Amino acid sequence: MTPLVRHVSFLRAAAGAAAVASLLAGCGSNQPHASARTQVTVREKDFRILVAPARIAAGRVQLVVRNAGPADHELIVVRAHRADLPLRTDGLTVNEDALEPATVATLEPAGPGAVRRVNVTLAPGSYELFCNMAGHFMGGMRAFLVVT
Amino acid sequence: MTIRPSPAFQRLARRNRRVVAAILFTFALSSALTVGLSIRSTTRSEDKAAVVEIAGRQRTLAERYVEQVLLAREGVQADPEVIARNLRASAKALLDGGTAPAVAGDDDDTKLTAEHGAVARSQLEQEILLADDLTATGAALLHHRPVTSVKLTAGEHPPATDPLRRLRVLAALESNMALNATRTIANSTDRNISDLIVLQAGLGIGGLLLSLLLAWALIATTRRQTAQFRSVVQASSDLVLAFGSDGCRYASPSVTRLTGRDEADLLGSGVFAAVHDDDRAQAHAASQVGEPPELVFRLRDRSGAWRSIEAHVSDLRQDRQVRGIVFNARDITERLELEAQLTRQAFHDSLTGLPNRALFRDRLDHALTRSLRSVEPLTVMLIDLDGFKQVNDSLGHDAGDQLLQEVARRFSSSVRASDTVARFGGDEFAVLLEGADERQTIVTADRLLENLREPIGVAGRELVLTASIGVVTRASASDTGETLIRDADIAMYAAKEAGRARHEVFHDEMARELGELLGIEHELRVGLERGEFSLHYQPMVDLGSDRVIGVEALLRWSSPTRGDVPPARFIPVAESTGLIVELGAFVLREGCRQAALWRADGALGEVVTWINVSPRQLVPGGFGALVQEALAETGIPPSALGLEITESAIVEPGSAGEQARRELEELHALGVRIAIDDFGTGFSSLGQLRHFPIDMIKVDRSFVQGSERDAKDATITSNLISLAHALNVVAVAEGIESNGQLDSLRQFGCDGAQGFLFSRPAPAAEIYKVLLDPVVERGSAEAVA
């Protein structure tokens, strides 16, 4: 199961068109400027998400996502506007559709032991990372990354 | 004989069987493994299907549990505890194997095997924890205890404020975990099955490749062996022909080489064109019916000569690889020729190439059978060469052999091609004439003698041989071959008796004479025991002084039945039977005894007593000892004894002659005198005489008696006497009968003489008187001669 980056980055609010173009070029080529990226380790386990470091400088960031299991986990990164994320009507899962404009990255579920990397360019702000598999968010799988 | 595979071919066949077995085994093994794997994968997939079903069912159970708790809290009849038990039991069964219980009657208990995958196990373990947390929280809720009092075990942190939401979150976690585990198990099962399929395919392909490899090796080996076999067949000198109902189908290159015909010419009925007319039908029949098992036929080779071919016929019509009749053949022409040669050697005399006695007897028997039918006369002649033994003795065996070969040629050219000349051995020949009457037979016998008359050059000499021929002719043969040969033998003996160099025709009277002859031998033996033998003595006179210088002892036989038998009649018999040895010993002892008596009376003086010694006495050895014994017994000095030997006695070849010569030399050294008797009639070489110690030569009476009238004999006599003088020995003439002869001998310078002119041989008592008055009166005997 190869990691699949569905969305890379849509920084409509903060980034100018030129900046978006440059970001796309950077991500599309999937190699350059690695030395300039800030690496953030995201460790998922039943049922916690640990982010280190939890506070980083804005700019290009590489998230290294490791699933420590035993359950499958996904990872969704959104800009945190409010204190709580909107839930679906079942009251158990996050309403991802409502969060789409704020979504920075989405990683599909992966089995225990999987390590995935995702490159993003993060503007200053607070970001929430969570697993939205049934009950996981509510069961404790949410964490924050502060970008300054 | 049948054709068997050669050992090399058997090895090949065995190896091929092994290879085929290996191929089959490989196929079977890979098939068994594939099928086994199929069964295993099917069983496993069935098991996994049950696992997946139960794992999936956990979601429903978790959701129904929440539902039942809520219903129960609302006071509705529900039994969340049963679902809680089922949920936990199923979760445990999924992990470690066991029975997943039936749920609400919509299914049966399900037997599950333990899960082995590490990921699936960790997820199932987590599911158990979540199920425990869920059911514990549910129980707290039902029993109105604070849900936060339930200690959670799976690392989850559900909301603490809202108990129902907490319960739903736990149910969602459990449900999701069950789904997660189900997916993991299903995926791993898929992987396992696909692995098995890959393994099966690998095994199948591997087995197939291995089998193909073995088959290829088998084919290659078989090809090579077949090629080898073919090359062996092709290089072999053995002739291989294979026949089908349409004639020859295969002819080995050796057949092509032998016959000089192309294979195309040999195929079909072509090969039979090279077979001899007389053998063709049989060879063709054998090629069609496979019999007889062995066959000899003649085949024309490239040079047009007939070769004898021996074929082993094998009926391989039932052999699927041949489906025909095979001739395994060999050229046995040389072998047959060798056999013929051996037969010829068995029936032919190797020296002359003439038929031998066996073949002669065979032809004689056939001729007798024919003669019975045709009533035609049949003649057998036996031929003995006169004096051949002397030739052999004096000139050696090589010369004798040459002589026999020439004689054989002359005899063969003297008869018709249809007649048989055979050599029986030695100097004895036989002739078989068919259809010749007595007159024609005589003509043939004359021709045989006549053709022999021409001198034969052997060993640098010209020899004239004569033969004695015994002839027997039967008008119509009622006799056996044995009888015919015996009668011819009698007739031949008669011819010898009649003076040799002639032929005699058998008549019944001869048989009687022969019987008499054979009787003599017996009587001689008996006579020797009974003392019927005595010695007469004949004086030897010195021609210068007319004094007696010696006496020759001569054997006499007074048979009570035959009267006085002349020596010429019994000496040859004694010679031929070996009785001469005993007679000779008698003469020696008696002569010495008489000499001793005379000497004791003072009658003998210097007179020497001469004893005749036969070659037969000298050859066995020990003669010297015998003489010394006689001398010692009688006490006479060795110089008073003289030995008369023939020329042939001292020229005897080989170690026997060597010993005889040595013994005589020893006796001579003692003083015993030695004379050569019948000098001039033998073939002694001067060289040998010169080196042999002799004292006297006695000139044969035939020359002496002829010397009076025959100039040739006179010359010979003269030369013999001169020769004696040249050798520094005394010459004594034998058989002197007239004064004319005496005159001639005096003229030639002969030293001594003996004969009727001086005295007949006489008994010892009469000779005694002569010795007392040693000057011999002659003339008194002349009237008698």
Q: How would you describe this structure to a colleague?
A:
The complex is a heterodimer of chains A (148) and B (785). Chain A is mainly beta and 148 residues long. Chain A is built from three helices and nine strands; from the N terminus they run αβββββαβββαβ. In chain A, a hairpin with a 2-residue loop joins strand 1 (38-45) and strand 2 (48-52). Chain B is α/β, with parallel strands linked by helices and 785 residues long. Chain B is built from 25 helices and 24 strands. Chain B has an eight-stranded mixed beta barrel with strand order 15-16-18-19-20-21-22-23, surrounded by five helices. A five-stranded antiparallel sheet of chain B has the order 4-3-7-6-5, sandwiched between helices. A five-stranded mixed sheet of chain B has the order 9-10-8-13-14, with helices on both faces. Chain B starts with 6 loop residues before the first helix and ends in a 13-residue tail after the last helix. Classes of the chains: A mainly beta (148), B alpha/beta (785). The A-B interface holds A 45-48, 69-72, 91-92, 111-113, 133-136, 138-140 and B 119, 122-123, 125-126, 154-159, 165, 168-173, 175-177, 179-180, 183-184.
